[in-house]
What does this fold into?
Amino acid sequence: METGTSAGLRIAVEMRSRVDDGRWPAGTILPTELELAREFEVSRPSVREALSALQFAGYVEPRRRRGTVVLGGSPVPGAARHVRAARSFEEVVDLLEARLVLEPAVLALAAADPDPVALDQAHEAVAGMALVTGGDAIPADTDHRLHAAIAGVCRNPDLREQVSTLLERASGPVWRETQATAWASGTASRWTDDHREIVGALARGNGPAAAAVSRRHLLSAVDNAAGCPGLPPSQLRRLHRLREHFGSC
It folds into this structure.
């Protein structure tokens, strides 16, 4: 039986092709992990890794009591995921500022009493990101689904909802313009390491470490935004202030 990352990637590519060519249209409930493992003649961990990669890239989504559901074909790069998605550079900077305040604080709280099921899911989500960013077989242009999975470790539903809303609003063409260099320059592979560190800190119950890595990671998004050619000088000054303030925390 084939095992390992190569098996996970092979299965992810095959499942992606079934979504893209319509064999698995949007709304399809995928076979169980056991059924997929038997079909592809691999271990269940390899299937789980493939599903995590497709979830990270936005092809599928796990639903409680339903299984894994197909969201649709190749996600549209930079598509807005919220009715209040960022429409200006000012709103992008607002979102970065809000995320720098909220996400590290939520993770620090989560580490004190992490949800074990959500923690396992976060571990799997990191494995999915690693598989995607390790090559170009599965396209992706955002790590926000992984951010949401990690925030899910926090037991407070109101805080989880606030993080989720910010992540959904951080989308659309203007947001993508400010973050384009991240995915073009290979920064995503380093971001995988950031997320792995965060989840590890949560598992150890180390809130300060989880918050520190989260802050460092978000500051890299600030740096990417600061390098956007079309950014107005007023917003560039705001980003520099964010870097100065949160970089010293």
User: Anything to note?
Assistant: The mean pLDDT is 91.
